[in-house]
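Q: Hi! First time doing this. I have a protein sequence and I read that you can turn it into a structure. Is that right? Here it is:
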Amino acid sequence: MSGRPLDVLEASLDEEVTVRLKGGTVYEGRLGGYDQHLNLVLERPALVRAGQDGGAGLEEAPDPEADGGTVIIRGDNLVSITT
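A: Yes, that's right. Below is the predicted 3D structure, encoded as C-alpha coordinates:
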Protein backbone atom coordinates (compact mmCIF):
# COMPACT_ATOMS: atom_id res chain seq x y z
CA MET A 1 0.00 0.00 0.00
CA SER A 2 1.39 3.43 -0.90
CA GLY A 3 0.12 6.97 -0.95
CA ARG A 4 -0.23 9.92 1.35
CA PRO A 5 -0.29 8.96 5.05
CA LEU A 6 -3.89 10.02 5.65
CA ASP A 7 -5.03 8.17 2.51
CA VAL A 8 -3.34 5.01 3.78
CA LEU A 9 -5.05 5.40 7.17
CA GLU A 10 -8.41 5.93 5.47
CA ALA A 11 -7.95 2.68 3.55
CA SER A 12 -7.04 0.92 6.82
CA LEU A 13 -10.15 1.95 8.80
CA ASP A 14 -11.87 -1.02 10.43
CA GLU A 15 -8.81 -3.20 9.66
CA GLU A 16 -6.46 -4.89 12.14
CA VAL A 17 -3.27 -2.86 12.59
CA THR A 18 -0.06 -3.08 14.61
CA VAL A 19 0.98 0.18 16.26
CA ARG A 20 4.55 0.76 17.49
CA LEU A 21 5.12 3.57 19.97
CA LYS A 22 8.17 5.44 21.16
CA GLY A 23 9.73 3.49 24.01
CA GLY A 24 9.09 0.13 22.34
CA THR A 25 5.45 -0.55 23.25
CA VAL A 26 3.50 -2.44 20.55
CA TYR A 27 -0.29 -2.82 20.33
CA GLU A 28 -2.56 -4.66 17.91
CA GLY A 29 -6.19 -3.77 17.37
CA ARG A 30 -8.77 -2.48 14.94
CA LEU A 31 -8.27 1.04 13.63
CA GLY A 32 -11.48 2.80 14.54
CA GLY A 33 -10.49 6.35 13.64
CA TYR A 34 -7.76 8.96 13.28
CA ASP A 35 -7.27 12.68 12.77
CA GLN A 36 -4.88 14.99 10.92
CA HIS A 37 -2.39 14.80 13.82
CA LEU A 38 -2.26 10.98 13.48
CA ASN A 39 -4.02 10.53 16.81
CA LEU A 40 -5.54 7.05 16.58
CA VAL A 41 -8.59 5.31 18.00
CA LEU A 42 -7.67 1.67 18.52
CA GLU A 43 -10.53 -0.71 19.28
CA ARG A 44 -10.12 -4.10 20.98
CA PRO A 45 -6.43 -3.37 21.70
CA ALA A 46 -4.02 -6.09 22.77
CA LEU A 47 -0.61 -5.39 24.26
CA VAL A 48 1.98 -7.24 22.18
CA ARG A 49 5.10 -5.89 23.85
CA ALA A 50 5.49 -3.49 26.76
CA GLY A 51 8.16 -0.88 26.29
CA GLN A 52 10.30 1.13 28.66
CA ASP A 53 7.57 3.76 28.90
CA GLY A 54 4.93 1.31 30.17
CA GLY A 55 2.44 2.31 27.48
CA ALA A 56 2.88 6.10 27.48
CA GLY A 57 0.77 7.81 24.84
CA LEU A 58 -2.44 5.99 25.67
CA GLU A 59 -5.38 7.72 27.24
CA GLU A 60 -5.75 4.59 29.33
CA ALA A 61 -3.59 1.50 29.24
CA PRO A 62 -5.64 -1.50 28.12
CA ASP A 63 -5.68 -4.71 30.09
CA PRO A 64 -4.00 -7.30 27.81
CA GLU A 65 -6.24 -10.02 29.30
CA ALA A 66 -9.50 -8.19 28.59
CA ASP A 67 -11.50 -8.31 25.37
CA GLY A 68 -12.99 -5.13 24.02
CA GLY A 69 -12.35 -1.57 24.96
CA THR A 70 -11.05 1.44 23.10
CA VAL A 71 -7.90 3.50 23.53
CA ILE A 72 -6.75 6.78 22.04
CA ILE A 73 -3.10 6.94 21.03
CA ARG A 74 -1.49 10.35 20.64
CA GLY A 75 0.06 10.82 17.24
CA ASP A 76 3.28 12.30 18.60
CA ASN A 77 4.05 8.94 20.26
CA LEU A 78 3.74 6.89 17.04
CA VAL A 79 6.71 5.24 15.39
CA SER A 80 4.82 3.10 12.85
CA ILE A 81 1.46 1.65 11.89
CA THR A 82 1.31 -1.57 9.85
CA THR A 83 -1.60 -3.59 8.51
